[in-house]
Design goal:
This protein has 273 residues and is mainly β. The chain folds into two domains: 153 residues, no CATH class; 81 residues, Immunoglobulin-like, CATH 2.60.40. It has one helix and 20 strands. Strands 1, 2, 6, 7, 8, 10, 11 and 12 form an eight-stranded antiparallel beta sheet that branches. A four-stranded antiparallel beta sheet has the order 3-4-5-9, with no helix packed on it. A four-stranded antiparallel beta sheet has the order 13-14-18-17, with no helix packed on it. A hairpin with a 7-residue loop joins strand 13 and strand 14. The protein is elongated.
């Protein structure tokens, strides 16, 4: 009886450990997990000329080498040549949550803000070099042709991250420009290959936690831009008076991102109790 009880207790602890590890590793679309940072790549593309394209790259691991590239191509939809938003994987260490091959290629899985990034069911982590974000204007095009502030996911083997995207490739037969915007992605390193320990003297927030929402921003050099995000990745309003920043009244965890005049971006989290 004692042996059976010991087995039951051990098995129960094992299940609790699995659940705890699963919860700790859960990533929410638009949210910033512990150790994460939001980066704005500043992609705001528009293509008006047929057979023209534009593209941009993402350095997800901060080694100054592109890991992903996104491309916006305009075809001639009146004769079955598609408009396409495509994702190119340049670093084979990265996989993308996508479905089976369909139409022009494998289409990524999209998540709404606040949704758990769960790559399961008909979707799986895949290591192909090309994925479709969206398309329009051909017989085998299965879309989507319009996405507004949704997220797709990547996996580097250690961490799961998300990339926020909006686009519209439905050109009404050629009379409208096609557009792509990408202004947020989650990474687990500081941009420009800056180690987190090196910023302690460059950017600090005090007090942290704060009770009244008022904090002091302590930094070296000059700041060109300040942004504040809540725990689900939404940009929020704030008040600034000199070096004093006033957080929103809602209690919770916020991320303060500063962009220095030299282009360097630094982020710190702060808790409002």
């Amino acid at each position: 009886m004692k042996t059976l009880l010991k087995v039951i207790v051990t098995f129960g602890l094992f299940l609790l450990l699995i659940v705890a590890n699963s919860a700790r590793g859960q990533v929410i679309a638009g949210a910033i997990p512990a150790g994460g940072y939001i980066v704005d790549p500043g992609f705001n593309f528009s293509v008006v000329i047929v057979d023209d394209d534009t593209s941009g790259t993402l350095d997800l691991n901060c080694d100054n080498v592109p890991d992903l590239a996104v491309s916006l191509f305009r075809g001639l939809t009146a004769v079955d040549q598609a408009n396409v938003v495509s994702l190119h994987v340049l670093n084979s260490a990265y996989s993308i949550c996508a479905g089976p091959n369909s139409g022009l290629g494998k289409v990524v899985n999209y998540y709404d803000s606040g949704e758990v990034v769960d790559c399961s069911g008909s979707f799986s982590w895949q290591t192909d070099s090309l994925f479709i974000l969206g398309n329009y204007g051909c017989l085998v095009c299965n879309g989507p042709w319009t996405i507004n502030d949704r997220y797709f996911a990547y996996n580097d083997g250690t961490n799961i991250g998300w990339i926020k995207v909006s686009f519209d490739v439905m050109d009404a037969g050629g009379s409208l420009p096609i557009t792509l915007r990408m202004n947020q992605y989650l990474t687990y390193c500081l941009p420009n290959s800056v180690d987190e320990n090196s910023i302690e003297n460059d950017f600090q927030i005090s007090p942290n936690p704060t009770v009244d929402g008022k904090v002091n921003l302590l930094y070296k050099g000059s700041i060109a831009e300040i942004e504040v995000y809540n725990s689900i990745g939404q940009k929020v309003d704030y008040l600034l008076s000199g070096n004093e920043l006033f957080l929103p009244e809602t209690k919770g965890v916020y991320v303060v991102k500063i962009k220095k005049s030299n282009g360097r971006q630094l982020s710190k989290s702060v808790v409002r109790n």
